[in-house]
From TrEMBL:
Domain of life where this protein originates: Bacteria
Keyword annotations from UniProtKB, A to Z: Hydrolase
Lineage start: Bacteria, Bacillati, Actinomycetota, Actinomycetes, Micrococcales
Descriptive protein name: Alpha/beta hydrolase
Gene3D superfamilies for the chain: alpha/beta hydrolase
Record Pfam families: Abhydrolase_1 (PF00561)
Ranges for domain AB hydrolase-1: 41-270
InterPro entries found in the cross-reference section: AB_hydrolase, AB_hydrolase_1, AB_hydrolase_fold
A molecular function (GO) term: hydrolase activity
Annotated PANTHER family: AB HYDROLASE-1 DOMAIN-CONTAINING PROTEIN (PTHR43433:SF5), HYDROLASE, ALPHA/BETA FOLD FAMILY PROTEIN (PTHR43433)
Length: 286
């Protein structure tokens, strides 16, 4: 890692400035951190998420030695445009964004819906990606993935009734350990106090849910095309994207690595960030 007097390296996501790039008629909002140079790690975020939804305990350790880029999809947060009705179109937007920054080779870190978009991107552009991290996600056409809509709305209702953040219900078990982990996760997302992103609007959220549903009900992709080193991780009780779908991905992607954390849900990697972050750092090493 090197620094200059004029531009010190930012390795805290809470301090990473938001900037924009315009391509294909969309102005994309994004944040960069970590030492620049080499292959960047591009982060693909989850349903309803904006730039403010990355856990600093996961992203900061990776940014300690890697150039990290997180971005808002079109129609989400501070990005202009409209979120598309199909996730493979979201993958097209991601490709446009990455190429607009001048990159021809990246690593990907993805979570949930971001992992679905990442899969579509790799299938379309296999030469773009060197290493792939898929967490809390599943394959196109995966069994019961289309049920995410019902689970999401039910947990939003439960959260509203208890004046909680929906992620506490959607990402974590409702046992003692899960409740504690959920509250800690939500508090970590508040560590950034300046230059906060705009929350997702209802229209974009609804469009994303329907796109995930279509992804779940569509013809499976040929994931044998993914020959990159791939790390797959989840909790053992994921209600949003059933944990068996992580095992399904592991079977479909040759030589992939699979980690299932015990007594945890969709946000297993956040609940077990102290164990997971070092594994992700080592996996993504240049």
């Amino acid at each position: 890692m090197s620094t200059t007097d004029s531009e010190p390296v930012i390795t805290s996501y809470a301090q990473a400035p938001t900037t924009t790039v315009t391509a294909g008629g969309v102005t994309y909002a994004y944040r960069e951190l970590g030492p620049k140079g080499g292959i960047p790690v591009v982060f693909f975020v989850h349903l309803a998420a904006t730039l403010d939804n990355w856990d600093p305990r996961v992203i900061d350790p990776i940014a300690a030695n890697r150039h990290v880029i997180a971005f808002d999809q079109p129609g989400v947060g501070a990005s202009t445009g409209t979120f598309p009705g199909e996730l493979d179109q979201a993958a097209d937007h991601a490709y446009t964004f990455i190429r607009a920054l001048g990159y021809t080779l990246i690593d990907i870190f993805s979570f949930s819906m971001g992992g679905m978009i990442a899969q579509d991107l790799v299938v379309k552009h296999p030469d773009l990606v060197r290493k792939l991290v898929l967490t809390g996600t599943g394959p196109r056409g995966g069994k019961d993935m289309d049920k995410v809509v019902g689970v999401t709305y039910w947990d939003i209702l439960r959260a509203t009734l208890t004046r909680s953040d929906p992620k506490e219900f959607l990402f974590f078990n409702r046992d003692t350990a899960g409740k504690k982990a959920g509250k800690a996760f939500v508090e970590r997302l508040k560590e950034r106090t300046i230059d906060r992103d705009e929350p997702i609007k209802n229209k974009a959220f609804s469009t994303q849910l329907k796109a995930i549903q279509r992804f779940g009900r569509s013809t499976p992709s040929d994931l044998s095309i993914i020959t990159q080193p791939t790390l797959i991780a989840n909790g053992d009780h994921d209600r949003m994207v059933p944990s068996v779908l992580s095992e399904d991905l592991h079977k479909r992607i040759k030589d992939s690595e699979l980690i299932i954390y015990p007594n945890s849900g969709h946000g297993g990697i956040f609940q077990f960030h102290e164990k997971f972050a070092p594994i992700a750092v080592k996996f993504l090493a240049p």
